[in-house]
Structure formats: structure tokens, C-alpha cells
Amino acid sequence: MTLTAKSVARAALVSTLVAAAAGAAVLAASPASGAASTLAAAAQQSGRYFGTAVAANKLGDSTYVGILNREFDMVTAENEMKMDATEPNQGQFSYGNADRIVNHARNQGKRVRGHALAWHSQQPGWMQNMSGTALRNAMLNHVTQVASYYRGKIYAWDVVNEAFADGSSGGRRDSNLQRTGNDWIEAAFRAARAADPGAKLCYNDYNTDNWSHAKTQGVYRMVQDFKSRGVPIDCVGFQAHFNSGNPVPSNYHTTLQNFAALGVDVQITELDIEGSGSTQAQQYQGVTQACLAVARCTGITVWGIRDSDSWRASGTPLLFDNNGNKKAAYTSVLNALNGATGTTTPTTTTTTSSSTPNPGGCTATYSEGEKWNDRFNGQVTVSGTDNWIVTVTVSSPQRIIATWNTSATWETANVMTARPNGSGNTFGFTISHGGNWNWPAISCRVA
Ligand code: XIL
């Protein structure tokens, strides 16, 4: 992408705003003026949604409902659409609590993610004791009945939840459903498609965030296989339950991007991150930015509203405190969403300058390098002159901590000036990111 002088000015303004927003993330309770002021409105700016899990028994809590109605435009029933809730006795379906959630959402103009049609956990007692053909048929009937009942009302169904094993095998989890035959997942997807052709059909799982983990690879191979054989799958859900033992991986963006490249949407479906303060806020910002950087990452759902609503309340993993006040994590997510200007991140970006004396000007092209938990590499290639001066501006709390193939000086802690050091016209650097994955702003002039 080559930017004109005018768009360079706009890009500089945007990156200044993003930098200011990121810097203010932990301090400010309100967004920058002109930016969207709710999670849903901010996500909608790039065509995405921002959702939450909802519990039917909290719909009478006015604080809870106030935040729900104001901030979110997608709803997932936390437990009420699971197999034990919707088919408590075989062949007898019960939709009361699920309907309360679906009706509340739809009356408020919100969409619904369906969760979940087939799962080894939260099965009704009668199903837990079944096996073989009887279980396979009961599962398929459940998928058909529930998806048909909600036909036309569900944006995306988690058709199958958590079917892969943890650890190094990369294979399926053992369960009564798995023991009915390895094709149980595709059979469930086919039944769901037939019952509600308008709903997106997702495979949903946890511990699939780190691209190098065997479980991630196993799910990836299944989706690749489904796409190649025409099994109807439209999306992959990443639960994203993080804590200190299972932190947001540095390659999260890579994972989302690689799944999306298979031709499916990706969604962050049950996000919560244990912790507090700026550490938690930075991790939330990183997850949000990873989604924003993938065109087919269509939305983010957090797994509850206030910390006290969480299934892991002691880890204070959500965006609102027990009193319904916005936490630093809320502000960092809102600001990250407001910083998104489009649905794609180019793999390279270029700024040009027509400054004299070189009439050909100077072009500097940035490309991404390796990424780690705490830092990432970037590389700039200059063309048009061998006599360049390139300014690299990073946004707080980022710091440039190493450079190569250039002679570098610092104007401020955030602004580096790079000149040739006899190694050619490509140089690189390492940025300590502190949770801010924004690219540096690059500008080039002729010396
Ligand atoms: C959890 C609910 O939040 C709890 O209320 C319930 O007791 C157990 O299930 N993965 C999923 C969700 O797909 O359905 C789970 O929800 C959390 C883990």
C-alpha cells in the first residue's frame, strides 16, 4: 500500500490518536471524544459485534440488565441452551429459560450465539448413560430439534463444543459421543445445517489459542479436512479463558489468521482473563487487537458482565467490577476497538515522501517480523535513495530495545531516527510492546 501525502497526514493523525488512546487506557474512564462510547458501538465501526454470556436468572437485576442493554449487541446463553437444559428428559424439550434470554436479546435488537448443541459435558443424566447407535441417534435428534426450534433466530451455533483432548496428542477427547465413531462431529454439523440453513455453524474449544500447541493443530486439521470434503462448517470459536498459568499467547494473532485462511470466520467466544489493573487491561487490549487484525474475526464475546457474575469470580476476570463499574480492562478494550479503522491489516505498509533534493523521493516499507510474549520485530526497507533518514515512532508503552543494520539515535523515548550504517537499505528493530501490538509509524526523507 502506498500512501499519498494527504493520506500520510491522516495516517499520522490516526496513529497519534491510537497512541494517545493506548497511553490513556489504564487511566481514563471515558473514551477520547468523538470515539464510540460503548463496546457494541465501538465494535460496529469495523463491522464486528461485542457480546456477553447472559444468565436467565439475572434478567431481573437492574444493574446487570442496564449494562447488558447498553454495552453489548450479541448474547450467548451461559447455560440455558445446553443439552441438559433443553432436553432434560429424552424427547421432552424445555426452552423456558433459553427463550427468556433469546427474547430479551431480540427485543433489544441484539443477536444471539447458540451454545451448544453437542458436548461431552452438561449432558442430561439419561444421555450420560447411553452409548452406540442409540446415543448417536439421540444426539442427532437433539441437534435437529433444538436448531429447528430456534431456526432463523441464531447468528451462529456452537454445534460441537470441546471435542479435542488437552496435552500433546492433538487427537479427539475420549467421551461417550466420541465412542459412537469419529464421524460424530461432521454428522452433528450436517444435522445442524439441515435444521437451520441460515445459522453459521461453529466448532468451539479452549486451549486452542497457541498456534504451536498440539490441540490447536488438531482442530486446525479437522477444519481443513471438513472444508476440503464439504462438511458444512462456517466458523471456529476460541473460548479464550486466560489466567497466569494459561496466558494470552504471543502468537494469538497468527492462530486466528491461520484458521481464517482456511475459509472460516473466527470468533472469540468466551473471553475472560484473570487478573487486575493494567496487567489485565493490557492482555484484554492484546486479544482485542488480535481480533481486529484479522478480517474474518467477526466478533468478541466476554463470558459474563461483572466479576461477580463470572464462573471464575475469584479471578476477577471480566470488564466490570462487582458494582458494575467499568474496569481498566473495559477502557483498554473500548480504546482498542475505537482504534480500529478497517477490517484488515495489510502485511506491509508504505509511506512516501517527495522531499527534495532527490526528485525520486524516498520510500520506506514496514513489514512485521517475529513476535513473542513481550516483544516483536519489525523491518524497514528503503528505496529511492541510499541517503535516507527514517523516523520510527512507537506508541506507549512500547519501547525500541534493539536495532540492527542501522545507525540509530533517539529524539524522545518513542521516536527513533535511523540512518544507513553501510549495511544496505534494510534495517530492523525489536519493540518491547507492553501489550500494545500497534505497528510503529514510519516516515522517510532524503538526507
Ligand atoms: C460454564 C458456565 O459459565 C458455568 O455457569 C457452568 O457451571 C459450567 O459451564 N466452556 C464452555 C462454557 O463452553 O459453556 C462453560 O460455561 C465454560 C467453559
Automatic annotation (TrEMBL):
Residues 33-336 form the GH10 domain. The active site is at E270 (nucleophile). One of its GO terms (molecular function) is polysaccharide binding. Its EC number is 3.2.1.8. Keywords: Carbohydrate metabolism, Glycosidase, Hydrolase, Polysaccharide degradation, Signal, Xylan degradation. InterPro entries: CBD2 (IPR001919), CBM2/CBM3_carb-bd_dom_sf (IPR008965), CBM2_carb-bd_dom_sf (IPR012291), GH (IPR017853), GH10 (IPR044846), GH10_AS (IPR031158), GH10_dom (IPR001000). Pfam families: Glyco_hydro_10. Residues 1-35 form the signal peptide. Residues 341-363 have a biased composition (Low complexity). Residues 355-447 form the CBM2 domain. It catalyses: Endohydrolysis of (1->4)-beta-D-xylosidic linkages in xylans. One of its GO terms (biological process) is xylan catabolic process. Residues 340-369 are annotated as: Disordered. PANTHER family: BETA-XYLANASE, GLYCOSYL HYDROLASE. Belongs to the glycosyl hydrolase 10 (cellulase F) family. This is Beta-xylanase. The lineage of its organism: Bacteria, Bacillati, Actinomycetota, Actinomycetes, Pseudonocardiales.
